[in-house]
Amino acid sequence: MRRALEGLDRYVATVETSKHSFFVFLDSSILVNNTVVVLAFDDAYHLGILSSRIHVTWALAAGGRLGAGNDPRYNKTRCFDPYPFPDATDAQQETIRTLGESLDEHRKARLAAHEKLTMTDLYNVLEKLRAGTKLTKKDRQINEQGLVTVMKELHDEIDAAVADAYGWPADLEDGEILQRLVDLNHVRAAEEAQGLVRYLRPEYQNPEGTRQAELDVETTTKAVSAAKETQKLPDDLPARMQAVQRALAAEAAAATVEDVASRFKHARRATVQSLLETLATLGLASVNEEGKYVA
Q: Residue 126: helix, strand or coil by DSSP?
């Protein structure tokens, strides 16, 4: 990680376990402990993508929960590593970059102006504003000091701009967001199998500018199918359940046990069926009259 941060004046960070999922820039001189997840980006474009509802929805579903408060956990290997960034145009990137910078500056300015104000305070009130919940006297004070209404507007603009970068409607339900991201992840895996890598920091990840292959639609489609059939079912139970849940969400229609099992290499039907039944018991999947599973 130290090498990845070389040459950066700042980096993106988020708390590993927190009631709210938010991302901030920290100065590169700040050394954090293992409760903070460090992402080696200094571009506010990346901060904007990570701060969007699309990414947060993915992170909440993928990361699991932890602690007495059952708070969301940002597990980098599950929430960030497999997350497919949009193929944004230069204009779209600049819009998201400007909004991400404005969000970071706004929050820091309000916290600096009121020393007792915390990021959790801001996002507690933001959550109530989004839900239309009546604010208490303390909430109204936080809203006034933190200008949370302005912060909400920035988040709303970021959500719309990021959705536009994906080419998606801005008002998708959470389940639709997850399915589209899973499908896009399969496409990206297929692209990489054919030599096309969409580097997030090409100057660091691909400094020599290695030429990458160009893909046609037919090749990509075949590679997507291959990628779906060669996933390995994780070893630990929570990861297995999440993998099966994502595989089910990626199905275009109600799926049989065999449909879901075919997405994993050497997966036993009985194992997949047991996981699907557990998901159904937990209310994370349902079974129709034909005995097929639906996300």
A: helix
The residues spanned by each domain of the chain are 2-166, 231-295
> Which residue is it, tokens 């290499």?
265
> Partners of 13 in the beta sheet?
24, 38
pLDDT tens digits along 35-45? 999 999 999 99
DSSP secondary structure letters along 191-259: HHHTT----SSHHHH-TT--------HHHHHHHHHHHHHSBPPPSSHHHHHHHHHHHHHT-SS-B-HHH
What one-character DSSP code corresponds to residue 114?
-
Instruction: Indicate the pTM of the whole model.
Output: 0.71
Which residue is listed with tokens 């007495």?
A: 68
Alpha carbons 15 and 36: distance in angstroms, whole number? 5
Residue corresponding to tokens 């849940």:
245
Question: Which fold, 231-295?
Answer: Arc Repressor Mutant, subunit A (1.10.10)
| CA gap 165, 83 in Å, rounded | 15
| Terminal alpha carbon distance of the chain | 37
> What DSSP string runs through 26-87?
EETTPPP-TTEEEE----HHHHHHHHSHHHHHHHHHHH-EETTTTEEB--IIIIITT-----
* pLDDT 10s digits, 59-81: 998 888 876 667 889 989 989 99
Name the β-bridge partners of 293: 255, 287
The number of residues in the chain equals 295
**Which uninterrupted H or E stretch holds 137?**
helix 137-146
